[in-house]
Amino acid sequence: MSNVHPASGPLAANPLTRAVLEIDEYAAGLGWDRPARLFALVDTARLRAQEPGLATQLGLDEEAEGAPAAALTPIEQDELPAATPLDEFLATIAWPDAVVGCALTVERLMLPPSAEASVPKDLDEKQLATWVEKHPERQEVRMTVAVLRDGAREAAVRLREKDSPTEVLTGADLVPGLAEALSATFAE
Prior knowledge:
Blueprint: H1 15-30, E1 37-43, H2 44-50, H3 52-57, E2 72-76, H4 86-90, E3 99-110, H5 125-134, E4 139-148, E5 153-159, E6 169-171, H6 176-183
Antiparallel strand pairs: 1-2, 1-3, 3-4, 4-5, 5-6
């Protein structure tokens, strides 16, 4: 497990957005062409109170002078199994009560909405992926999506060609399918 260090950019309006941007910055620091990464989101104050040793190990025992305490602490989980499709893997996850949310960062190829009309019909998933890979308007993106047990969600999308913290798009409904899959990991 590793702690994601706070983003150096402007502070986001709410704790979930801040957590998503912290994870996005962490992933950006690792570079592109990386496997998906899964994070547990825990309440920082509760972690400090209930697990002071772990908080110290994660560098949460003391906040930087003048910096506000992060309300949520992302904790990276073990590497995802490469041989298992992401949706199948997510269906196997159950979080302990101490985890208030989770996040995932994943790289994908996307097409602009203008390319939708040119998608050939009757392609299976593998054929469609190959077609997208060869499309001249494809964009490589890193998506970071986070959800909380209470249903709140947030996402950050970073284009590889505009790989800058100031070019990260955020919003609750940017990657709804992935947000739904992450929310399902909290279903009882």
